Amino acid sequence: MYKVFFITFGCKVNHYETECMKELFRSAGCEIAPSEEGADAVIINSCTVTSSGDSRVLAALRKTRAALPDAVIALTGCYPQANPEEAEKLTDADIIVGTKDRSRITGLVSRCLERREHIVMLSQYSVGDDYECLKCSRFDDNTRAFVKIQDGCNQFCSYCIIPFARGRCRSKPIDVLCDEVHEIAQGGKKEIVLSGINLAFYGMEHGCDLADAAEVCAETEGIERIRLGSLEPEKMSDEMLGRLAEIPQLCPQFHLSLQSGCTRTLKAMNRRYTAEEYYELTERIRRFFPDCTFTTDIMVGFPQETEEDFAESMAFAERIGFSKIHIFRYSRRHGTVADKMDGQVPESVKAERWHRMSAAAERIRVKYLASLVGKKVNVLFERENCTDFHQGHAIDYTLIKIPCENPKKSLRNEIFCVKIEESGHDACLGRIVGRPK
User: Fold this and answer.
1) Which end of the chain, N or C, is more open, meaning fewer C-beta atoms within 10 Å of its C-beta?
2) What is the DSSP string of 321-368?
3) How many angstroms separate the CA atoms of 70 and 68, rounded?
4) Residue 195 phi/psi, 5° resolution?
5) pLDDT of 243-265, one tens digit each?
């Protein structure tokens, strides 16, 4: 058969889907190439969440075609799905497939290798579409397995192109999830990260919810940690939180997407909550998970965001005390409501606000990490940092390092109790004191 190389952009969902496509090619007898050198086909799994993301995808496409003029190149993912007219004009790609029909990718590549024809398959989404049950049981180079269980979004935030790239909410059937998690556990993975485009909406069409998915993972022998991916604040009911709190393997670290701590800006974004409602949700979660931590995303420079709005958002971030914040600048996306809004913020102002919010986020994070000194935490070790440190993550997703006394001894995929002795800007340093009790 032939060799296939993958290039992946974007979120954890995209990376999961790449692993699923790799599994499809392996099942067809193909070899997954470690580099583009000698590859017969290249699959570029694209992202379109920002305009700069589009630019990186198109640059990679041009570079790959220049390097491999005779290879079959397939462009798949969110970029062609959200931008079908532009994608169809891309002559550097032999195959163009969106976020649907990727279960057919092996057949399309084989067809193209045989006939050298240009293939465009950009099926549009409809309300009521089924979830495409791609599956992955093998995750190279990771001690945790990211498992996509939900796709699509119904929210239509005014800045976001993703509903056009992913369609409406739909969920992986619970029995399919059960089989997949069992295979992952059989492969030796100890941690499951449940992922989705709008994860909190999992199961809405099946009469179940996110707690059901977490319980399935918890019931699987060998799974010692369950982590939730990025969550929108909606749908996090007390009933669901109560059930999640009963799962001992659940890591009490919640990535609650905020976007702005200013209610006026949230309304312009078409977010379905106020800043105060978001704060009240964090307080409810803390009642169920007293030792929980919160991470988030914050956007700066949204259209019409004033200096006062920005200051309010920054103060709100301080109030919550996030353990980590991902900060990004608003990016105009053609086809969204925000793209047509008056009061677009100049790029220079966006950059200045990004730097100020980043400085605030670092202060908050350093303060949080310092609060961990002296505590004992259970760490799942993932990889060695050269020969100096073993490193892994605590249940709150804090990066923990310990000195590597024996470079030949690996702690990979092992869980140890570590006493934290020092803190820094991005990680804590400690020493092993035993096994988890």
Assistant:
1) C
2) T-SEEEEEE----TTSTGGG-S-PPPHHHHHHHHHHHHHHHHHHHHHH
3) 6
4) -130, 160
5) 999 999 999 999 999 999 999 99
Q: At 350, which amino acid appears? A: K
Query: pLDDT tens digits for 269-320?
Result: 999 999 999 999 999 999 999 999 999 999 999 999 999 999 999 999 999 9
Integer angstrom CA distances of residue 235 from 112, 201, 245, 374: 44, 7, 16, 36
Alpha-carbon span 105 to 95, nearest angstrom: 9
Burial class (CB in 10 A: 0-12, 13-18, 19+), 346: exposed
For 396, the 3-state DSSP assignment is: coil
pTM exceeds cut of 0.90? yes
Burial of 347 by CB count in 10 Å (0-12 exposed, 13-18 middle, 19+ buried)? exposed
Cβ within 8 Å of residue 181, ≥6 positions away: 147, 192, 216, 217, 220, 223
CB atoms < 10 A from the CB of 206, how many?
A: 14
User: Which residue do the tokens 């009490």 mark?
Assistant: 252
Q: What is the DSSP string of 30-84?
A: -EE-SSSTT-SEEEEEE--SSHHHHHHHHHHHHHHHHH-TTSEEEEEEHHHHH-H
Q: How far apart are the first and last CA of the chain?
A: 49
Integer Rg of the chain from CA: 22
Helix or strand holding residue 379 (H, E): strand 376-385
Q: 43 is written with which tokens?
A: 């699959």
Distance CA 246, CA 242 (A): 7
How far is Cα 202 from Cα 197, in angstroms, rounded to an integer? 10
Q: Which amino acid is at 231?
A: L
Q: Quick one: how many helices (H) and strands (E) in the chain?
A: 13, 18
Reading the block at residue 127, the tokens are 């309300």
